[in-house]
Amino acid sequence: MPNREELLAAICVAPDDDGPRLAYAAWGEEHDPARSAMIRRQCEAPSEQVADALERRWLAPLGLARGEGAMRRGFLEEIDLGDLICKGLATAPCAATIERIELTGTTISDRGVEALLDARAHLPSLQTLALI
Predict the structure, then answer these.
(1) Which residues, other chains included, contact 15 with Cβ-Cβ below 8 Å and sequence gap of 6+?
(2) What does pLDDT average to in each consecutive run of 10 residues of the chain (132 residues)?
(3) Can you give the residue range of the structural domain that contains 12?
(4) Which letter does DSSP use for residue 100 in this model?
(5) Which of 42, 83, 76 has the alpha carbon at shortest distance from 58?
(6) What 3-state class would DSSP assign to 69?
(7) Considering only CA atoms, which of 117, 72, 80 is closest in space to residue 97?
């Protein structure tokens, strides 16, 4: 069976294909059953109430509240950092699938810009950085 990094790489290569996400969920049955359940639920039959509760659980390690990030089929896809500094992105396993980062109405310090640029190597799916 592929390892975690190989499964995440497959998700990044085919972000619209549920197959790699469901393969990750199968791998996760032994490693993180709650997350596996969330991935399956969001891929197979989304339940808003269950998905919302689990989404909050997965946003918390990044210091994000509900509404500051969006999950799609079990993986973090978008975050709104607001005033948050980017240093946690480089170590967060779920950051590998982020496609868009939006900085809205915020002033980001030099340290924040440096942290974001340093984190870029750990954000293989990042397509858009919006400064609004």
Answers:
(1) 97, 99, 125
(2) 91 92 94 92 72 77 73 75 58 82 70 74 86 78
(3) 4-131
(4) E
(5) 76
(6) strand
(7) 72
* Six token digits for residue 102: 């939006």
Residue 72 φ/ψ region, left for φ over 0, alpha for ψ in the -120 to 50 degree band, beta for the rest: beta
Query: Rounded to whole angstroms, how far apart are CA atoms 2 and 5?
Result: 8
The span from the CA of 37 to the CA of 101, in Å, is 26
Of 31, 25, 7, 122, the residue nearest 74 (C-alpha): 25
Neighbours of 21 (CB within 10 A): 24
Rounded Cα distance between 52 and 12, Å, is: 23
Q: Compute how many other C-beta atoms are within 10 angstroms of the C-beta atom of residue 119.
A: 20
Amino acid 83: pLDDT:
42
Helices 48-59 and 33-44, axial angle in degrees (round to 10): 140
CA 90 to chain centre: 12
Task: Domain count for the chain, please give it.
Answer: 1
